[in-house]
TrEMBL record:
The keyword Transcription regulation does not apply. This is Diamine N-acetyltransferase. InterPro entries: Acyl_CoA_acyltransferase, GNAT_dom. It comes from the Bacteria. Keywords: Transferase. It comes from Arenibacter troitsensis.
Length: 174
């Protein structure tokens, strides 16, 4: 049987009670570079987002899930985005909010679980991830899970007055 649960984490849909976590995460300037955020979000805007988070991936072309430890504490978010059922591909992004929860296998389990979901349940042929060239932990994560570096997008992200390269990773089903 297929599950969204691993040995130390599980993935679940976002709920109204996640507003404060989402507010802290989305307003953390340290992740704006990877999320494309340019200004803070209000709680009101995030509340509206949560009210629509239940919509089907086939309708909104994305799926955002909370990464929770087995005690139910939210550690981060993992997303499927640019869902393309015609070409059988989807992008994946992940963020573990606090550094204390990183490098402990949380991201590994979350990516494994959601990749399996994308292949088994959604029938995707490929999952891809975009990673900044300087993001060694994410490069290590996707590489060790069988994602192949297939290209570099030159000067793709403009941040803090400089252009940065982004690596395109891809994992094929089968």
């Amino acid at each position: 049987m297929w599950s969204l649960k691993g040995e130390q984490i599980y993935l679940r849909a976002m709920e109204p009670k996640d507003l404060d976590f989402l507010y802290d995460l989305e307003n953390n300037p340290e992740i704006w570079e990877i999320s494309g955020t340019t200004s803070p979000y209000s709680k009101h805007v995030l509340q509206l987002y949560l009210e629509n988070a239940h919509k089907d991936i086939y309708e909104v072309k994305q799926l955002r899930l909370c990464i929770c430890n087995l005690k139910g504490m939210v550690l981060g978010l993992i997303d499927l985005f640019d869902f393309d059922p015609k070409n059988l591909r989807v992008g994946m992004g992940i963020v573990v909010n606090q550094k204390i929860n990183r490098n402990k296998g949380v991201g590994t389990e979350a990516v494994e679980i959601l990749t399996s979901y994308a292949f088994s349940v959604l029938g995707m042929r490929q999952v891809y991830a975009n990673v900044l060239e300087e993001n060694a932990p994410s490069i290590h994560l996707f590489s060790k899970l069988g994602f192949e570096k297939v290209g570099i997008k030159k000067d793709w992200i403009y941040s803090n007055g400089a252009f940065k390269n982004e690596i395109l990773f891809q994992k094929m089903n089968g």
